[in-house]
Design a protein that fits this description.
single chain, 109 residues, mainly alpha, 2 helices, rod-shaped
Length: 109
Amino acid sequence: MTEWWEVTLVIFGGIITILTAWNLIESRVHKTKEPTAILESRVLEIERKMIKYEEMFGRDKARLDSFDESTRVILQALLAIMKHDIDGNNIDALKKASDELQEYMIHKR
């Protein structure tokens, strides 16, 4: 009878040892995969933000381009007014302002 208990205890002890080893291996594998999973989630979050920022930057660029075009048109109109006023009073100052504005418009593009 004592042999039967000894065999049973050895079998259950072996099962417990195998299950404990399995749990240890599983926890090690989980710990080694955890940094990769965290990194992957961070990369996905950054990619989503980047797509959002690219859309926002695209809209901002289009808006700034339209501002640039409108500023160019306004400056051309202002230059035309200044050239018209050159025929009147204070010709030297208007000529200087006209030259500076024309220089600005040339170098701005």
